[in-house]
Every structure is written in structure tokens, then in C-alpha cells.
Amino acid sequence: MYRPEVARTDPTGRPRPTLESVEPDPSVDTYLDSLTGPPHVALSAWRALCLDLPSDFVEGIRYGMPCSPGAGEPEVAFAAQKRHLSL
Question: Topology of 26-86 in CATH?
């Protein structure tokens, strides 16, 4: 999870902007609800971490998998495959 006490400044020493949580997207809820067992548990936990990303991220579905794009491009994505999980 994001820990504000760790990253209060950027590498140059300037203060970082205030960060807020990402708003959950119902389509990602639907995706996760379609999973069962360990994939559901693991990806639900990963999603909880993703929801704690900086506020310029927007949760959604792209390329058929949940992702959180920043600046319009997917930067964090995850999916359940037949025999593995993709992060």
C-alpha cells in the first residue's frame, strides 16, 4: 500500500502532490466476481493495492483485463489466465 510517510518528496526534494485513492470501477468488480478460488483471492488483493494508487490513475477494463492507466496508457494491469496470473 501507499505509505505517505515514505514518499513525501520526489527525488529532487520537492514536495509530492497530495495523493488520493482511485475510485473503484464496477466493471472490475464484475471481472473479479467471475473468478473463483485462489485467482479471485490473489487478484482481489492486488486490486486493493491498485486502488491506493495516485489519483491521476483511473481504474477500468482495457485489452480485456482490469487496469489502471496513468497519462492514458495502462501502467498497472492484471488478469487470470488458464494456468497463471498476469500482473
Answer: Aspartate Aminotransferase, domain 1 (3.90.1150)
Helix (H, G, I), strand (E, B) or coil at 63: coil
- Residue 54's CB is within 10 A of a number of other CB atoms, namely 15
* CA–CA separation, 3 and 61 (whole Å): 26
| Predicted model pTM | 0.68
Q: Domain boundaries in the chain?
A: 26-86
Which tens digits make up the pLDDT trace of 39-66? 999 999 988 887 776 666 778 888 888 8
Pairing between β-strand 60-62 and β-strand 65-70 as defined by DSSP bridges: antiparallel
> Cα–Cα–Cα angle for 25, 75, 48, nearest 5°?
45
